[in-house]
Amino acid sequence: MAPTIGQCAVGAAIAWLVAKNLLGHSRPFFAPIAVVVSIGVALGQRMRRVVELVVGVTLGVGVGDLLVSRIGSGAWQIALVVALAMAVAVLLDSGSLIVLQAGSSAVLVATLLPPSGSGGLDRMVDALVGGLMGLAAVALLPTSPATLVRRHAKGTFGALADALRQIAEAIENGDARVAADALEEARGSQKDVEEFRQALQTGKEIATISPLHRHRRPFLDGYEQAAVPLDHALRNARVLARRAIVALDGPGALPPRLPRELRELADATLMLRDDLAAGRPPERAARAILSVASRQGAERWGFSADVMTAQLRSIIVDLLQATGIDRDEAVATLPPLDAHPDDSTSPRKSTQRPT
Fold first, then answer.
1. Where in the numbering of this chain does the Integral membrane bound transporter domain appear (predicted)?
2. 86 and which of 103, 104, 158, 340 could share a cystine (Cβ 3.0–4.6 Å)?
3. Among 349, 158, 115, 149, residue whose Cα is nearest residue 254
């Protein structure tokens, strides 16, 4: 977080100097506050935060100045001013920042800064100055978008690879508890997915705003292409883990090829991570995934095994999409499922019981 903290600190100081020395505002506290809020410590949507901030402050100051100048200050006046300012903000936009800024600005006007002359307009200008200084700090003192996205993507790719390996181990050892552990860890990975998406959004924002990092936009395209399919692959891995628990607790057999193929997909996931991090076309990863896809047969092993096979096929499609292959082409790489349960060529074991 050091670069972001530095951006907030430098931007706040410059915003104060601009509003006080260039614009002549005596107490331009809204300017440095606007910098801190617009940059923030959270990832993503900084442009939107600047707009919401300025609109929220404008509403709060405007409503506060209008009412307090007529009805004075006090407890019931604060309640009325805050309620009206926040209600107008909600009607304009339900974003949390614009509503909070409208309410807090109205409180400041009603308590500490009674309206006088052009004070309301000055505060609106201070908020705009702070928002612009915040964007300037992001542009001129930027975090590297490549480093930011690469770091947050690492957790998502690792979570998927770990889940696939754990499920493979559970099937190989016939241990439903290992599958349950895989499911629990995969459920906890959603936080990694959300952070990856926010980092990607922030990286694209930096690459758009900052002239120093515009050349990074092609690098981010590979990650943007992979983000949604990777999320889908993790969701399918959770379903696969749940079905593995059921299958391993039941009497049915599972295809012996499953552990090997799951591990190959885990390896391919890490190849994809490394290729994107290095800015290379993910050709190695695509070849490894296609190799697993080509070996998907139409044999039937029972309900739980068939569900797991279907989930495996879905993960293959997701990973192929993450490498840049479109969905129709990815689906076409899989052999069709045209066998029937009573097919005499099916390798169903004679000892298998219904699941």
1. 14-136
2. 103
3. 349
**Overall pTM surpassing 0.70 (yes/no):** no
Question: Do the Cβ atoms of 65 and 119 come closer than 8 Å?
Answer: yes
**Is residue 240 a contact partner of residue 167, using CB atoms and an 8 Å limit?**
yes
Same domain, 119 and 176: no
Q: Kindly state whether residues 133 and 95 are assigned to the same domain.
A: yes
CA distances (Å), origin 13, targets 46, 54, 347: 19, 19, 73
Same domain, 191 and 49: no
Do 280 and 308 have their domain in common? yes
| End-to-end CA gap in the chain | 51
Cα diameter, the chain: 91
Is 80 domain-assigned?
yes
Contact 8, 35 (CB under 8 A): yes
Rg of the chain taking only CA atoms, in angstroms: 28
Domain span at residue 58 reads 2-140
Which one-letter amino acid corresponds to residue 314?
S
In a domain, 343, yes or no: no
